[in-house]
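Final report, section 2: Outcomes. Of the targets proposed, ABC transporter permease is the one most frequently requested by collaborating groups, and we therefore present its record in full.
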Amino acid sequence: MTAYTGRIAATPRGRNAGSRLVVSLLNAFGLPMLLLVIWGLASTRATSGFFPDPLTIARAFLDTWVGPAFVEDVLPSLARLGLGVAASIVLGIAAGTVIGLAHWLRELLEPLLEFVRAIPPPVLIPVAMLLLGITDTMKVVVIVSGAVWPILLNTIEGVRATDSVMKETADSFQVTWWERLWFLVLPAASPRIMAGVRQALSVALILMVISEMFASSSGLGYRIAYFQRNYLIAEMWSGILLLGLVGILLAVLFGLVERRVLRWYHGIREVNRV
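The predicted structure is given below as tokens.
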């Protein structure tokens, strides 16, 4: 009787799991597939050659990026992006922690930070070219000039918002400054820091493309601009498609890292939700 009822009970659970899988797939791929169908139908009726159909773009994608262009353009772009993001994380967390802990320093630097933050990073590209030349260092500096701000500001706010009760508890146990930093301040600020890193990834990807379009002889931005200037429209769209795929890959990788770093935080949220 128990085995029989177990089989009966297992059937709805299996159906529910299958239904959830179907719903997840529809949520993930339903809208992109619908947009592809609309694009395909619109491109067949369009008189302009600037909007090729999805199959033409897919063929151009394989012909363009599966080969030497991956090594010559994609890998250098990813290297610049990685260096820029890494430098932004180190600088943003280090400076944000110091500014967040020192009230007098925060008041001293706040007007300057607000002024510098208001300057659009692409405006700094000509200045960076004059100072550093058309080099990879220049492109990394441009990426850092924009990507560091979300991390810096979120770190400052996260450090400032550290729970006062936890601070008093640390004082009562005579915790050293370094122990307080590593085991109290940074963990408490980590949710906001990770939110800043998420924003910085999008900014870094944009600045990577812009810097390569302005001053480069390789990279995704350079290649997309080259295709546009030479009216290689399908190849241009394939480069834009590749940028979108890079963005998705970054989001997936960041999600994995975030779940691991903030495992304790998500656990607390789940408990509070229940």
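The mean pLDDT is 85.
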